[in-house]
Write a structure and sequence with these properties.
This protein is of the alpha/beta class. It has four domains: 128 residues, Response regulator (Rossmann fold); 167 residues, Rossmann fold, CATH 3.40.50.300; 75 residues, Helicase, Ruva Protein, domain 3, CATH 1.10.8.60; 40 residues, no CATH class. The chain has 19 helices and 14 strands. The strands form four sheets. A five-stranded parallel sheet has the order 2-1-3-4-5, sandwiched between helices. The protein has a five-stranded parallel sheet with strand order 7-8-11-6-12. Helix 13 packs across helix 14, helix 17 packs across helix 18 and helix 18 crosses helix 19. The protein is elongated, with a radius of gyration of 29 Å.
Length: 448
């Protein structure tokens, strides 16, 4: 799909009249059409600009429709292939499906039949993309939430959502766990490309020796073990969105090729020399200080300036205290549904502890803490004893009532520590006293 949002269709037929008729029909319906008179010409066209769908005549010249279908599976793996034939037989159908075709269009055909087939195949491909992305995005069962009372977060959201309607490259900055991946998906869903693929590449987890092949694909024989050609993530993104997570970890050797992709919308598979066209929109994210990386020589200055056009910084969770209660309650509901438990409420003391904690792992850590509580809870209220010790320890100390005695304050404090500790020994360690001393005080105050 081009930046206009049109699906790209490659028409391959050796009859000029058929090519012309299909072009008029498809362009009239709003599709972007490329024509090829032979299999060889079709492969060259697909290399330059991978189509979303190819209408391929079964009977061509030296490279027939089946051979072209197999070639397109290597050269444009995201393209769906529909074979056009006047000789539809069971044997042909089996051979076509084995080669990678998804449907037949029998000759003679009407414009209405052509559009029905094209719409059906593209619709199926779109549904498959949405299903794949839904599984990837909601694997933890936690929904993205962008309602916020925090001014810095409101400003970041407003800025990137204005840019979402364009094709501009967007750079998201922020600490690990602040939700950059969720926001990238939200930008995609708010853009004209929402019906297209959203492809994520985590640059920090791919070996430097493989990153170029993963991003741009490779030709057969490009390196040891490359026994077949393979499309990369750029090609898989098609006319959708390519999300480069942790772009600050991209090896310097690959940075120049990314710069070419951003500036010229072109890339070259490893082991090839012919450039291919990409219409993908790029969103990048990193927790690193890219200016410092440029100064240190690990990140290209020209790539930094090419990325640093539309930039938004997501504040850490410790700076969004006003959002924490709403976030926590929403996460509790999502995880309770995922684990088929609950419903649960958050005890006021639990909310106080969550609000006081610094959250070095940000929203990702908050999800982990709440998931643990949801799994091990025995009642309908999530109480502070279900939280990790470091979170409980952040809770503010209770304010003693006016006129309260030292003995009453000690009893209340010991009771609170006992309630959140698994054993008497653990409570004694938290209080900094010997277990025997704590045992005597527990008996004195009638605590259990």
């Amino acid at each position: 799909m081009g930046t206009s949002g049109k699906a790209r269709i490659l028409v391959v037929d050796d009859e000029p009249n058929i090519r012309t008729m299909l072009r008029v029909c498809l362009e009239g319906a709003g599709y972007d059409v490329t024509l090829a008179a032979s299999g060889e010409a079709a492969v060259a066209a697909a290399r330059r600009s991978p189509p979303d769908l190819a209408l391929v005549d079964l009977r061509l010249g030296a490279m027939d429709g089946l051979a072209l279908t197999r070639a397109l599976a290597q050269e444009a793996s995201t393209a769906a292939v529909v074979l056009i034939t006047a000789y539809a037989t069971i044997d042909n159908a089996v051979d076509a499906m084995r080669a990678g075709a998804v449907d037949f269009l029998p000759k003679p055909f009407t414009p209405a039949q052509v559009l029905h087939t094209v719409d059906k195949v593209l619709g199926q491909a779109r549904m498959q993309q949405e299903l794949t992305e839904l599984k990837r995005a909601s694997g933890r069962g936690v929904h993205a939430r962008f309602d916020t009372k925090n001014p810095a977060m409101q400003q970041a959201l407003a800025f990137v959502l204005r840019a979402a309607r364009t094709d501009a490259t967007i750079l998201l900055l922020g600490e690990t766990g602040t939700g950059k991946g969720y926001l990238a998906r939200h930008i995609h869903a708010s853009s004209p490309r929402r019906d297209r693929a959203f492809v994520t590449v985590n640059c920090a987890v791919i070996a430097p020796s493989l990153i170029e092949s993963e991003l741009f694909g490779h030709a057969r024989g490009a390196f040891t073990g490359a026994d077949r050609a393979r499309a990369g993530h750029v090609e898989a993104a098609g006319g959708g969105t390519l999300f480069l997570d942790e772009v600050g970890d991209l090896p310097r050797e690959a940075q120049g090729k990314l710069l070419r992709l951003l500036e010229e919308h072109e890339y070259v598979r490893v082991g090839e020399t012919e450039p291919r066209r990409s219409e993908a929109r790029v969103i990048a994210a990193t927790h690193r200080d890219l200016r410092a990386a440029v100064a240190g020589g690990s990140f290209r200055e020209d790539l930094f300036y090419r990325l640093n056009v539309v930039t938004a910084t997501l504040p850490p969770l410790r700076e969004r205290r006003e959002d924490l209660a709403d976030l926590a309650e929403g996460i509790v509901a999502d995880l309770a549904a995922q684990h088929r438990r609950g419903p649960f409420t958050l005890a006021p003391a639990t909310l106080a502890a969550l609000s006081a904690y610094a959250w070095p792992g940000n929203q990702r850590e908050l999800v982990n803490v709440i998931e643990r509580a949801v799994i091990i809870a025995e009642g309908s209220e999530l109480t502070p004893d279900l939280l990790p010790e470091e979170v409980r320890a952040a809770a503010p100390a209770p304010v003693a009532p006016e006129g309260d005695t030292l003995e009453a304050a000690e009893r209340r404090h010991i009771a609170a520590v006992l309630a959140r500790s698994a054993t008497l020994d653990a409570a004694a360690r938290a209080l900094g006293v010997d277990p025997s001393t704590l045992y005597r005080k527990r008996e004195r105050y009638g605590l259990r």
